[in-house]
Amino acid sequence: MNVVIAIDSFKGSLTSLETGEKIKDGVLLAWPEAAVAVRPLADGGEGTVEALTLGMDGVLETVRVTGPLGRPVTCTYGLVERGSEKLAVIEMSGAAGITLVSPEERNPLHTTTYGVGEVILDAIEKGCRKFLLGIGGSATNDGGTGMLQALGFGLLDREGNPVSPGAKGLEQLVSITDAGVNPLLKMCSFRIACDVSNPLCGPRGCSAVYGPQKGADAAMIRQMDEWLSRYAALCPQADPNFPGAGAAGGLGFAFQAFTNAVLEPGADIVLDETGLEEYIQGADIVVTGEGRLDSQTVMGKAPAAVACLAKKYGKTVLAFSGCVTEDARACNQAGIDAYFPILRRPSTLEEAMVKEAAGRNLRDTAEQVFRLVNACKGF
Question: Which helix (H) or strand (E) holds 372?
Fold first, then answer.
């Protein structure tokens, strides 16, 4: 029997690969002769860098960059060699994420994506020309202008001076030049993991929808939306209404307008980059899951993407999770044939999330499930 495991991390407890290895241990306890392959899984958000980089035999790089408030932060990204190509795996939140800003300091008028551009430049200097970049969890609403400045674009005010950091700089912006851009940027391609469909401006735009969680009040939202609209008018090469243009405070729009970029669902990018389809074709059973299975799992999350791919080849799909909700039955309709919560005795959330306990529960639950599979001799 061939088993392919592609399971998302149990956030705060186990990484994607750690989760997969614990399930593998359980499968082999029940069926020692089974062939089991563990593949990394993520959706472009938190944990993507580690899951993909380590799962694809890459290395983790660290670089000191400008944080969202201008203070230095250390950002970790992945570098994966594939033949003659080098792929950089980056989470923008590592350089400009909302978790880097205390609630008291959150103010999108001043937070910048400058550090994201610095990470990209570091990867370019290390030979990367292919980029996979997750843009969730931002603290910014600057339309990606900070990133563009770091890459060498001139974002200038009426006097020809660089505009200020943050969304406030958009108020000053009157022209954009590319005279100082690193020429290697034209040789780079970007796959942007983007799981929101918001346009740049308007009632569903980044300012209105995501501004409040970044510290914006109603007056700031109106101002930023107007400034972003004027910014878009300076960039006729990109569509501000394109789904995802408003992702990460307009960072999606900046990638569209000034780089060779494609915005795609994060899980789809990860499945493609890791070559999961090839593994699934030879599998008898596909195992997936995440920390919590619920109706949201089917809304573009990684386990649902795995199940969809597996059903393309008629494979049986099992899922494991830390917990399930009553509405998790939607997962069955999305291609997960059966799912199993792993808690084996009453415990608090804190107890259940201890790494050793979660790993033991995963292994033991997987063992019992695959003892049943083995007894049924269905494969």
Answer: helix 355-376
C-beta atoms surrounding 1 within 10 Å = 17
Helix, strand, or coil (residue 171): helix
**Sign for the pseudo-dihedral over CA of 223, 228, 231, 236:** negative
Q: Using the predicted structure, report yes or no on whether residue 362 has a pLDDT greater than 60.
A: yes
* pLDDT higher than threshold 90 for residue 43: no
Q: State pTM to two decimals.
A: 0.88
Q: 3-state SS of 169-238? A: HHHHCCEEECCCCCHHHHHCEEEEECCCCCCCCCCCCHHHHHCHHHCCCHHHHHHHHHHHHHHHHCCCCC
Instruction: Give the contacts of 221 (CB within 8 A, at least 6 positions apart).
Output: 207, 208, 211, 212
152, with CB counted inside 10 A (0-12, 13-18, 19+), is: middle
156: enclosing H helix or E strand: strand 154-156
**Residue 292 and residue 321 in contact, taking contact as beta carbons nearer than 8 Å:** yes
C-alpha to C-alpha distance for 260 and 188, rounded to whole angstroms: 7
The kind and range of the H/E element at 133 are strand 130-134
- Give, to the nearest 10 degrees, the angle between helix 48-55 and helix 16-30: 50
Question: Under CATH, what is the fold of the domain 2-41+274-376?
Answer: Rossmann fold (3.40.50)
Q: Where are the domains of the chain?
A: 2-41+274-376, 48-267
Q: What does CATH list as the number for 48-267?
A: 3.90.1510.10
Give the span between the Cα atoms of 95 and 242, in whole angstroms.
25
- Would you say how long the chain is, in residues? 379
Enter the tokens of residue 313: 């080849």
| Separation between Cα atoms, residue 66 and residue 74, nearest integer Å | 9
How far apart are the C-alpha atoms of 106 and 215, rounded to whole Å? Answer: 5
pLDDT band (50, 70, 90) for residue 379: low
Q: Pull the structure tokens for residue 6.
A: 């592609």
Pairing of strands 338-341, 316-324: parallel
Six token digits for residue 158: 């009426």
Q: How far apart are CA 207 and CA 86, in angstroms?
A: 35
Q: Please choose, from the candidates 307, 206, 312, 310, the residue with its C-alpha nearest in 3D space to the C-alpha of residue 251.
A: 206
The conformation of residue 244, written as its DSSP 8-state character, comes to T
Tokens encoding 45: 């958000």
